[in-house]
Amino acid sequence: MIVRVDQTSDVPVYEQIRSQIAAKVATEELSAGTKLPTIRALAAELGLAVNTVAHAYRELETAGLVQTRPRHGTTVSPGRSRKEGAPGREKLRSAARAYAKLARQLGIASEQAAEVIREELAKPH
């Protein structure tokens, strides 16, 4: 199974799918060119609505982590591995540094600042 979902989690199911696949791409557990299950197959395997999995795949495609081509399916995009670095990762790191600096200036504890980030990431767009 490529991902697992926790129906009791506060994190939306599509985000659980998106984040697990993104993490596997980042750690090269899913390397460039790896074919992902079809949306329908993954939805059936997880017992989810097709639209939920489609939402996760769209988010991954928007981030450039996967590419979908007619008759070829969805594959991990080339050049998305940890070794090669992902475009946008440095931008995210820079924003994280700025956030950490602001949290320190406001006297917010690390765990509280991290909780704010987790809450924001869990919110649907």
Task: Kindly list the characteristics that best describe this protein.
125 residues; 5 helices; Arc Repressor Mutant, subunit A; 2 domains
Overview of the structural elements:
- The protein is mostly helical and 125 residues long.
- The protein has 2 domains: 64 residues, Orthogonal Bundle (Arc Repressor Mutant, subunit A), CATH 1.10.10.10; 34 residues, no CATH class.
- It has a two-stranded antiparallel sheet with strand order 1-2.
- The radius of gyration is 16 Å and the shape is globular.
- It starts with 12 loop residues before the first helix and ends with a helix.
According to CATH, the fold-level topology of the largest domain is Arc Repressor Mutant, subunit A
CATH architecture call of the largest domain: Orthogonal Bundle
Structural class, from helix and strand content?
Answer: mainly alpha
Broad shape: globular
Strand content: 5-15%
Order of helices and strands: HHHEEHH
> What is the CATH domain class of the largest domain?
Mainly Alpha
Mean pLDDT: 88
Largest sheet: 2 strands, antiparallel
| Radius of gyration computed on alpha carbons | 16 Å
**What is the CATH homologous superfamily assignment of the largest domain?**
Winged helix-like DNA-binding domain superfamily/Winged helix DNA-binding domain
